[in-house]
Amino acid sequence: MKIHQYYVYIITNASNNVLYTGVTNDLADRVLQHKDKMNKGFSAQYQCGKLVYYEEFQWIQDAIAREKQIKAGSRKKKIALIVNENPDCNDLSIGWYD
Known about the structure:
This protein is of the alpha+beta class. It has one domain (6-85): GIY-YIG endonuclease, CATH 3.40.1440. It has helices at 27-35, 42-45, 60-72, 75-85; strands spanning 6-12, 19-24, 50-57. The chain has a 3-stranded antiparallel β-sheet with strand order 2-1-3, sandwiched between helices. The model has no long low-confidence stretch (mean pLDDT 95). This is GIY-YIG nuclease family protein.
């Protein structure tokens, strides 16, 4: 049986004042797309490319449900989620592309 991996992630900009939540099956590639502004949308407009949070799931349905739950939550809840796992809001993708 094939092992699936899906990710829910939150990225921000350099000053940590904008949050973008998304879902993907290839986290490293998707974060690179955000960093390179390959898709002209919210994350490109607001210079979001700093990965500050992610969760891994085996099933896409679970990942989508979690993404919706996070998106429906307040900014305060999103920040608490990030700070709980990544208190300094470091870019978790540092070193992925060397």
